[in-house]
Amino acid sequence: MPLTAPSSVGLYDGRFLAATEKVIVASMNYRLGAMGFLALPPAAPGNVGLWDQHLALSWLRGNVAAFGGDPARLTLFGESAGASSVSFHLLSPWSRPLFTQAVMQSGSANAPWALVTPEQARQIAQALGHLMGCPEGDDHAVVRCLQGKEFLGLQPLRADGGYLQGGEGRKNFFCGPLGAHLDFEEHHMGWGWGWGMCDRNVIS
């Protein structure tokens, strides 16, 4: 099961692998950006994007046999930020029993861009709240305010070529168990535009 950019992007099309090897390829989509990794605990515990992935893994484990697959031989594959996700699932006591093998390409949980500290996550979430005109000083109020915003209201933050900083001048890439991924110009939503991802809806 690949963890990477949307499965409809040609670069990650699993049909070629399925056609040439004796494997079943299942791809998942999961919430990205503020929808998937906003973290302002306890108001927003964060990492729901990783829980989306966990849910997909659970479903596949329980249903792959109906498609001719073997639930005892599941391989989780991810590239770049997806590789970090795979790494986090290898470390997770909830996810690890759901698959038997893993492939991580160009990423891992200990990559410098793979996670942020709780304090960095809080700063990023508060910065997003400020940019969206939400009240400051009350995390619950910020989360309620963001929940009341139309998703398309986030688009200008993504499309202007800018991004929120993740500390020490680096851009905020994928953020893992302690993180809050709010980068609107990373490869799922920004670099991937050249691969035709700009018209994909990240929530359905």
From TrEMBL:
Keywords: Hydrolase, Serine esterase. It is an enzyme of class 3 (hydrolase). Pfam families: COesterase (PF00135). Belongs to the type-B carboxylesterase/lipase family. Its EC number is 3.1.1.-. One of its GO terms (biological process) is acetylcholine catabolic process. PANTHER family: ACETYLCHOLINESTERASE (PTHR43918), CARBOXYLIC ESTER HYDROLASE (PTHR43918:SF4). PROSITE patterns: CARBOXYLESTERASE_B_1 (PS00122). The keyword Repeat does not apply. Residues 11-150 form the Carboxylesterase type B domain. It comes from Sphenodon punctatus (Tuatara). Transmembrane segments: none annotated. This is Carboxylic ester hydrolase. The lineage of its organism: Eukaryota, Metazoa, Chordata, Craniata, Vertebrata. GO terms for cellular component: extracellular space; plasma membrane. GO terms for molecular function: acetylcholinesterase activity.
